[in-house]
Amino acid sequence: MPATPTIHNREPRAKRPRRARIACLRSHRASGARFALALAAGAALAPITAAAATAAPALLNGSAHYSFVTLGDPKDPTFNQLLGINDFGEIAGYFGSGSPANAHPNKGFTVAPYSANTFTNENFTDSQQTQVTAINDWGNTVGFYALPSGANYGFLDERGVILSVSDPLTTSKPPVDQLLGLNNNGEAAGFYNDAKGNSHAYTWDRTTQVFTPVTPPGAASATATAINDHGAVAGFFTKANGNIVSFIHQGGTWTTVAVPGSTTTEIFGLNDEGVAVGMYVGQHKQTYGFVYSGGTLKSVSDPDGTGSTVVNGLNNAGDLVGFYTDAKGNTDGFVASPHLVGIPTV
């Protein structure tokens, strides 16, 4: 696994103040491209000593509370996925379906949609594929890259200097290790696979270089997908019966989140207010996005989606990013902005 920092092909960013609410999205839809994969991120906190709480509230429809804008890199108008957004509205993602990898590889990017939709390439040096999965308020990013051998490794990109990251406990062949979440304190969340193909969630501290396991109670396999500035970690895990449910770990408390009637609920993003986003599988195996806040679950689907929406990230302003499948079978990235109370929408 490469461990030496490598100069990246992005221009360095200047350090900026940590929190600023971004401008509201335009109400009209823009033409977009497609996005392919979405994985999760998380982080570990206190030892597992507290009992796990279970959240199974009724599912409400929250789509009408958002304005949706389609957004994608024009290099591939058939496949874009938006995976993370920071408080400045900068977005991380990738284009290219990855199938086959040598013809349509995943190619990472960042984009600031409020500044002429300028896409900046971000790909690990000499990799075959790259996905940029999260971006913090400093403009630093994490993600993972793939080699022609099929090996996957995580990476951290700090203003143009990129570092390969892999938990030394990774034993799968080929190795699979991915970073999926990043906070403003340099803490990342991800997972690695063992020799049996089971996933193990962890957090990684940029300063100490320490990997900390995240082990939800009752998990046969777990993925950490998000970590906020308070150290709360979120993700999803597979139970012994094969059902996939989500978790939020704050302090010594584990909360399990599952959409009623669904066998698959996966959290992909978590902000500093404790609001989580993700996807669940509904009837006829269709996927829907959701927002979870204060014990309430709200389903969120892009109006142009045809039974397939994934919400993959959010910021502290409540803006969402993700992707959907359109009527042509393309995968399109989207940004969804919550309606401001008292202000009519167009």
- The percent of residues in helical segments reads under 10%
Class by SSE composition: mainly beta
Radius of gyration: 18 Å
Trace the largest sheet across and list its strands: 1-12-11-10-9
Question: Can you offer a commentary on this structure?
Answer:
- With 346 residues, this protein is mainly β.
- It has a single domain (6-10, 31-338), classed as Neuraminidase (6 Propeller), CATH 2.120.10.
- Helices cover 0% and strands 44% of the residues.
- The protein has strands spanning 6-7, 52-55, 59-61, 66-70, 80-85, 91-95, 107-112, 118-121, 129-135, 141-146, 152-158, 161-165, 177-182, 187-193, 199-205, 211-214, 221-227, 233-238, 244-250, 253-257, 265-270, 276-281, 287-293, 296-300, 309-314, 320-325, 331-338.
- A five-stranded antiparallel sheet has the order 1-12-11-10-9, with no helix packed on it.
- A hairpin with a 5-residue loop joins strand 14 (187-193) and strand 15 (199-205).
- The chain is globular and about 45 Å long.
- The N and C termini lie far apart (51 Å).
Keywords:
346 residues; Neuraminidase; 5-stranded antiparallel sheet; 5-stranded mixed sheet; globular
In brief, what are we looking at here?
This protein is an all-beta fold. The protein has strands at residues 6-7, 52-55, 59-61, 66-70, 80-85, 91-95, 107-112, 118-121, 129-135, 141-146, 152-158, 161-165, 177-182, 187-193, 199-205, 211-214, 221-227, 233-238, 244-250, 253-257, 265-270, 276-281, 287-293, 296-300, 309-314, 320-325, 331-338. The protein has a single domain, classed as TolB, C-terminal domain (Neuraminidase, 6 Propeller), CATH 2.120.10.30.
